[in-house]
Design a protein that fits this description.
mainly alpha, elongated
């Protein structure tokens, strides 16, 4: 498709984009781990308290973890888009496009579910 390899500065741009992608990947891993740990602590706190309304607490934890998951999916989509700038082979772009569409659909339906849970409160 595009061939930028003959440009002298492309090597540096590609290297910079690889660094950006690595930072994004590390960020989304940290986001999902932090979200999981915080949700786990909320869950443990709810177990050891004497609250009888466990349904609302479960939904609260689902919303909390769901918001972190949405953020995680956004980071992945951004990393895929930046990665598509580096990969210029048409087959890789097709598969990357399909993956981005699937992840966007998952994020949309998760957001819709979280919105429904919030409205039930």
């Amino acid at each position: 498709m595009w061939n930028f390899s003959n440009l002298p500065f492309w090597h540096y741009i590609g290297f910079l984009l690889e660094i950006i992608i690595t930072i994004i990947y590390v960020s989304w891993i940290m986001v999902i781990i932090i979200g999981f740990i915080k949700s786990l602590f909320k869950f443990i706190r709810i177990i050891f308290t004497k609250n009888t309304d466990s349904y609302n607490h479960k939904n609260e934890i689902r919303m909390f973890l769901g918001n972190y998951t949405l953020l995680w999916l956004d980071f992945i989509i951004i990393a895929d888009i930046v990665h598509s700038v580096i990969n210029t082979e048409i087959q890789q772009l097709y598969s990357l496009g399909i993956i981005v569409i699937i992840r966007t659909a998952i994020a949309y339906f998760l957001w819709k579910e979280l919105k429904e849970i919030k409205n039930k409160k």
